[in-house]
Amino acid sequence: MNKVELLSPAGNLEKLKIAFAYGADAVYGGVSHFSLRIRSGKEFTFESFKEGIDYAHSMGKKVYATINGFPFNSQIELLKKHIVQMAEVEPDAFIVAAPGVVRLCREIAPHIPIHLSTQANVMNYLDAQVYYDMGVRRIIAAREISLKDVTEIKKHLPDMEIEIFVHGSMCFAYSGRCLVSAVQMGRVPNRGSCANDCRFEYTLYAANEDHGTMFRLEEEPGVGTYIFNAKDMNLASHVDEILKSGAVDSIKIEGRTKSPYYAAVTAYTYRMAIDDFYTNNFEAEKYQKELATTKNRGFTDAYLIHRPFERADSQNHEYALSKGTYEVSGLVTEDEEHFYCKYKTYPNEDIEIFVPVNTKIEEVDNDIGKIYFKDGLYYINFKKILTETGKELDSVHSGNTNKIKLPGRLPYLTMFRVEDKMINE
């Protein structure tokens, strides 16, 4: 049995490295407006994207390049140049949504495998066969698909790889095919500039056209007016069912615009779930506890296991985004001897250490502080807060860009986190 691939988002070079450090086998990201996420795509230049690909290949890992926007006629010549440039940085696949762009990629860069974006909305083996005949070798299934239908596609097309989303933001529309933002804000979601209008709080009105009356509907306090807002997908508890099906080749995490901490926790958790499945140690509650530390809109297990019309809990009408149960307070630098403060750090405070996979920590106790193991977790406690130049501070906050000395070496990209007491009270 081939082990399923864990695919994480990479909005920039730092997040790419974090995803790999915390367990991803592959990442996806893009450059320019031909990627579905314009804003996050701008964080990659061709140079830094190439650097990320080289970094991944040095570790035996993969990078898939997103060219999954829907181009207008006026952009086609520019798109051709973009495909040439993207092929030159040697990604492991192109993620493409439009049939015409699939054909264009096959003509311009036939050596680059094609993965079909979820935006193509493949739900059955007939459509899958059409794309397979066009040269597509992996389908990223529509988020509304059932595991039963995924299995049926695999049965008819055993050589077609199938990738499914297991975690992240859910779109109000069918597999992201939404134009609400385009109508209201002039920002076209399917070209990467969604304004997230479905996340807004709306005021509701009732009108009668016969006599021209209109009045505002008063909502009961606490009910909320986030009428389009979808909860976030979270299928961690179903990873065992997904892997048992034998039909899924890659599980995918949404979130190129999410935080570095989100990239770390989601990769770490789904890596743990996958590995636990193969060693018969699957524990759904453990994964949910870890994922709850990230910011989210509430979680739903969406439609892979349940049919859409059976669901009554996939929308969050109360708020657009909540805090996670933890705040990130630091990120260890590449020299492994310092960290950057991301929240606030005080002396004599126990801070949990969140460490990349397959790394070791040595306990220390010296004048700067101590690193120690307690109740199954590692912690750091600073006796002194010293900058790289030796200046002592009473405390350090996220606005301070100085490197802060560690009492002992910690792996690059290790994170510090503290429990948000307001959330957990």
Automatic annotation (TrEMBL):
<dbReference type="InterPro" id="IPR001539">
    <property type="entry name" value="Peptidase_U32"/>
</dbReference>
<protein>
    <submittedName>
        <fullName>Peptidase U32</fullName>
    </submittedName>
</protein>
<comment type="similarity">
    <text>Belongs to the peptidase U32 family.</text>
</comment>
<dbReference type="InterPro" id="IPR051454">
    <property type="entry name" value="RNA/ubiquinone_mod_enzymes"/>
</dbReference>
<dbReference type="Pfam" id="PF01136">
    <property type="entry name" value="Peptidase_U32"/>
</dbReference>
<keyword id="KW-0378">Hydrolase</keyword>
<keyword id="KW-0645">Protease</keyword>
<dbReference type="GO" id="GO:0006508">
    <property type="term" value="P:proteolysis"/>
</dbReference>
<dbReference type="GO" id="GO:0008233">
    <property type="term" value="F:peptidase activity"/>
</dbReference>
